[in-house]
Specification:
The structure is a single chain. The chain folds into two domains: 2-209, Formyl transferase, N-terminal domain (Rossmann fold), CATH 3.40.50; 214-308, Formyl transferase, C-terminal domain (Methionyl-tRNA Fmet Formyltransferase, Chain A, domain 2), CATH 3.10.25. It is α/β, with parallel strands linked by helices and 314 residues long. The strands form four sheets. The protein has a seven-stranded mixed sheet with strand order 5-2-1-6-7-9-10, with helices on both faces. Strand 14 and strand 15 (278-282) form a beta hairpin. The protein has helices at residues 10-21, 47-54, 72-85, 101-104, 127-134, 169-193, 225-234, 303-308; strands at residues 2-7, 25-30, 35-37, 42-44, 59-60, 89-93, 111-115, 123-124, 138-145, 155-162, 208-209, 241-243, 252-260, 271-275, 278-282, 287-294, 301-302.
Length: 314
């Protein structure tokens, strides 16, 4: 098919690569403008732009697609590029811009979105992280026919994936990106065969995955150890979960932890013990054993290395 692709991060790049490998014609790619990155804040192209340029696909990077918005000239240029591309289908994956109705109505087969959850659960910005944080047993990807709402369109194709205690957001992201890349190719195959079925999202079970906020980073030990262990996994790599340890002026980041269902005599937040096996913190329900940490300005360290350089007050 003749497909315009819209996406920005690594999650989307895998889908673009899969569409190219499947033999689809990609006349145009939409992606976010280059952003400052690294210590030198050098303008860096998105993962999708890099993949598109490597495949000699034209790239368009408007700051907005709203013709009556803040950047009308950029939106109009994008409109002309889209019209010239004459797409049968627009595939969207983590693009980062709202698609106005004129975009949704342009392709003859509409706009397919690769969403990293089993809709209608976890509509919105951070479905991967919120699924881990909530303790969901499974997640997956949904290929959705986009409409004007927030992830409210009809479902076309779903694939599920179990969530385990070893899944950080980073690990789950990579698995879902690969799953989404396969799913979009399979969905388009079914579309071309005439076997793709559209199903409205159920009204029950709707939840919203709010955007991650750095203010959520500090761990609250009045919660249970199980909840805190999930938050640590959910916030890896962004925004990171933080806590204060005695003897350290700056908060540290916790990257791995284990929830231990046991009673203790400490107050929430008390350090119960610290050795090469872990730093045990009292919570409202159970003990949180920290296994990998990072001091401010330092690197991630296994707890055995961390405790060697931590002078805990007696």
């Amino acid at each position: 098919m003749r497909i315009v692709f819209a996406g920005t991060p690594e999650f989307a790049r895998l889908a673009l690569d899969a569409l190219i490998a499947a033999g689809h014609e990609i006349p145009l790619v939409l992606t976010q403008p280059d952003r400052p990155s690294g210590r030198g804040l050098k303008l860096t192209p998105s993962a999708v732009k890099q993949a598109a340029l490597a495949a000699n696909i034209p790239v368009c990077q408007p700051r907005s697609l709203k013709l009556d918005g803040k950047y009308p000239e950029e939106a109009q240029a994008a409109r002309e590029a889209l019209l010239a591309a004459e797409p049968e289908l627009l595939v969207v994956a983590a693009y980062g811009l709202i698609l106005p109705e004129w975009v949704l109505a342009l392709p003859s087969y509409g706009c397919f979105n690769i969403h990293a959850s089993l809709l209608p659960r976890w509509r919105g910005a951070a479905p991967i992280q919120r699924a881990i944080e909530a303790g969901d047993d499974e997640t997956g990807v949904t290929i959705m026919l986009m409409d004007a709402g927030l992830d409210t369109g009809a479902m076309l194709f779903t694939r599920a994936l179990p969530i385990t205690a070893q899944h950080s957001a980073a690990v789950l992201h990579d698995e879902l990106a690969a799953l989404g890349a396969k799913a979009i190719v399979q969905a388009i195959d079914e579309l071309q065969r005439g076997t793709l079925v559209s199903q409205p999202q159920p009204q029950e079970g709707v939840t919203y995955a709010a955007k991650l906020d750095k203010a959520e980073s500090p761990l609250d030990f009045s919660q249970s150890a199980a909840v805190l262990a999930r938050r640590i996994r959910a916030f890896d790599p962004v925004p990171g979960a933080t806590l204060h340890l005695p003897g350290l002026a700056e908060p540290v980041k916790a990257w791995q932890a284990l929830a231990i269902d046991t009673s203790h005599g400490g107050a929430p937040g008390d350090v119960l013990q610290a050795d090469a096996q872990g730093i045990d913190i009292a919570t409202a329900d159970g003990v949180l054993r920290l296994l990998e940490l990072q001091k401010a300005g330092g690197k991630r360290q296994p707890v055995a290395a961390f405790v060697q350089g931590w002078q805990k007050p007696s």
